[in-house]
Amino acid sequence: MTARPELILRRLSNTFRNPTQSPNTSNSLDFYSTSEQVLLRRTAQPVSLDFMLIIPPGYHMEMRSHGWLSARGIIAVPKIIDSTYRTRVIMTLINTSDADYRLELNRPLVSGVIYQDMLPEIMIRTYYTDEGIDISD
């Protein structure tokens, strides 16, 4: 049996709440708002989630809108975080509605889905002339 990969989070504020695992899937986490903030109508605004993370090599996390927030016209610009990411997690939220929206503290904002990388190892061969390259059909 292989060990489960470890996701390491570093909290950057006292209002950071540990993510919760979604009940329907084992590889999805819900991340929460760490402050109250007004999202102005028809605008995009950065929102810090007040944490940093380390994802193990060979994995990445796709961050996207949380369902209940999307239903209110708030969309998160998707983000992919891989094992080289080493900074504060900031999401861009877009309020597509005609009214301002107040984000409340500790409400689910985004979902992060963890995937194992499936890229095969590839070999790159670089030619500095066209000798040795046959591009005919």
How are the SSEs ordered, and which strands pair?
Elements: E1 8-11, E2 20-21, E3 28-32, E4 37-39, E5 43-48, E6 51-54, E7 59-65, H1 67-70, E8 74-76, E9 79-82, E10 90-95, E11 101-103, E12 108-116
Antiparallel strand pairs: 1-6, 2-3, 3-12, 4-11, 5-10, 7-9, 7-12, 8-10
Summary of the model, kept short:
With 137 residues, the chain is mostly beta strands. It contains 1 helix and 12 strands. A 5-stranded antiparallel beta sheet has the order 2-3-12-7-9. Strands 5-10-8 form a 3-stranded antiparallel beta sheet, with no helix packed on it. The protein has a two-stranded antiparallel ribbon with strand order 1-6.
The number of distinct helices, counting runs of at least 4 residues, comes to: 1
Report low-confidence residues grouped into runs of 5 or more.
Answer: none
User: Radius of gyration, rounded?
Assistant: 20 Å
Question: What is the global morphology?
Answer: globular
Order of helices and strands: EEEEEEEHEEEEE
What kind of oligomer do you see?
A: single chain
Largest sheet: 5 strands, antiparallel
Amount of beta strand: 35-45%
Arithmetic mean of pLDDT:
87
Strands, count: 12
State the end-to-end CA separation.
47 Å
Strand order of the largest sheet: 2-3-12-7-9
The percentage helix is under 10%
Derived from helix and strand composition plus strand pairing, the structural class reads mainly beta
